[in-house]
Predict the structure.
Amino acid sequence: MTKNLLTTMVVLAIPALAQTTVKDALVKHWKVTSDFTIAVAKQMPADSYNFRPVPEELSFGQLIIQIAGANMSACSQASGMMGPAIPEKISQSLKNEKDDKLAVDKDTSVQFLTDTFKFCNDAVASMTPEKLDAVVGRGTRKMTGFEWLWAYFTHTAHHRGQAEVYLRLKGITPTTYTF
């Protein structure tokens, strides 16, 4: 009887010990989304980084910069860590997103996206459960660290979807999502 009880307890405990934590899931999925988003960004030819489907939309390059900047901000808020410096070319382009003379080239955009995703991957991996639960932010923009990460993970997916539409409008089939 005791042997059966002990065996049952061990068998029931194994799944509990193997469960993925929220942090583990965040680390895994930030890495997946970073690799996928960078792949999408690299697919657009350099001479099409100024492409806008309609005048009211951001150019493809600006969309990539939007993803990078928003992720960096969210990961900084959530982790308390300082993100990478914003390149001067990008700072200038953000002053007037409708001025194509301030457009940022593909290499600068992709490098900034790559740098900010590396920062986010490192920031998420460094977060403790307490950091994930801590409420941070300013003014009316206060959320837990987890909420900051979740909200901007979703933000990235939204804008990456837009980027994929831009690619399709240019006749480019987007890379296949790998989960």
